[in-house]
Amino acid sequence: MATQENTSSAIDETPISPVATARGRKMSLEQHLKDRPDRHELVDKNILPESTAAPSLQEKQKELAKHMRADSLNDKISHRPSPEQLLENGVLHDDPRSPDEKYAEAIEEEYAKREGGA
């Protein structure tokens, strides 16, 4: 029994942090909560999504919007005029250089970029 009394008196039961700092932290937290921005500001800064849907549905909503944009772009691309039509209408101008000349010029430009000459 004597060993139990010695070990219990050797245990330090003082708090790790003083009570005054805990109160200060609580006051600080309350101050930060009062000063936090409202939902509208967070949406404007793109921190929160605009959607008011449930969080479990927001991912599906993003995926649907992505697919809708892809469908819209594919539709626009499918109605785009061909290069031949653009040449006929004068929008594009035919390049008189041969493909080999274009390739050689592109290679020279690439070498110049890598060596800092361009």
From TrEMBL:
The keyword Repeat applies. Pfam families: RPEL. One of its GO terms (cellular component) is nucleus. RPEL repeats lie at residues 27-52, 71-96. Residues 1-11 have a biased composition (Polar residues). Keywords: Nucleus, Repeat. One of its GO terms (biological process) is positive regulation of transcription by RNA polymerase II. This is RPEL repeat protein.
